[in-house]
Amino acid sequence: MAVAPAWPMANQMINPPTDQETLNMFAPPDEKAATIDTRLINHPIALELRANPNYKESRPHMKIPESMRAHHLTSGALAGPGRIEVPPLMFIEKEGKGGLTLTYLGSDICGHPGVVHGGAIATLLDESLARSCFQALPNKVGLTANLTINYRNPVRAESYVVLRSKTVKVDGRKVWVEGTLESLPEEGETPVIYTEASALFIEPKQAKTMSRLYPAAS
Questions:
Q1: Residues in a beta bridge with 183
Q2: pLDDT at site 216
Q3: From CA 193, how far away is CA 190, in angstroms rounded?
Q4: Which of 52, 110, 113, 182 has the fewest CB atoms nearer than 10 Å to its CB?
Q5: Residue 211: which residues within 8 A CB-CB, separation 6 or more?
Q6: What are the b/e assignments for 109-144, b being 16+ CB within 10 Å?
Q7: 174-183 and 143-151: which strand pairing?
């Protein structure tokens, strides 16, 4: 009896929802979350990329089995009211050439008062850069070998942001990525660049097994 609950979780890991299915799995818990969700979904950047056949849209956090999300940093400890208020919306370019992530950062992940903690920003950059390039790796999964971040401007709490990434080099099991974290601009606005980052991801030798265990990475 003790192992019975493990079956649904194992089944979800082996047969995760499709990218399209993840877009319908989040139900905003309150009016604020609904407002944030609507703005992300209908932002001009999202509309433009949704119409571009070279990009695939998804909410990667929704591929993580629900019973495991509480143990996952960005879909657990950093997610929810006052933090990452709604699951980030991600657009990945074909063949792992790059991607964009749209998200909203609340008031409860600050370092200095009213300023989002630099460690939270580093976590978001690490995850977004990684997801955008995994399709360029042989088995579609990798681990962070290096992450360099230059903080240019503080990120104010209660902000909409966009993470942009571009794969700049692929060499076998290694892939190099560059990216920025910027304000999510309204029409006619010039975005503020908050951070610039570069990273190296390496596919481990046991990646073929990992890709089956962690489908959310694909």
A1: 161
A2: 44
A3: 9
A4: 113
A5: 139, 140, 141, 217, 218
A6: bbeeeeebbeebbbbbbbbbbbbbbbbbbebbbbee
A7: unpaired
pLDDT at 10: 55
Task: Write the DSSP string, 140-185.
Answer: S--EEEEEEEEE-S--BSSEEEEEEEEEEEEETTEEEEEEEEEE-P
CA distance between the termini of the chain: 32
Mean pLDDT, 10 residues at a time, over the chain (218 residues)? 50 76 95 97 97 96 88 90 96 96 97 97 97 92 95 98 97 97 91 98 82 50
Q: State the pLDDT at residue 1.
A: 41
Strand partners, 104: 160
**Catalytic residue set:** 126
Enter the tokens of residue 57.
């849209």
Q: Are strands 159-171 and 98-105 parallel, antiparallel or unpaired?
A: antiparallel
- Closest to 160 in 3D by CA, of 38, 58, 57: 38
Question: Which helix (H) or strand (E) segment is 126 a member of?
Answer: helix 118-133
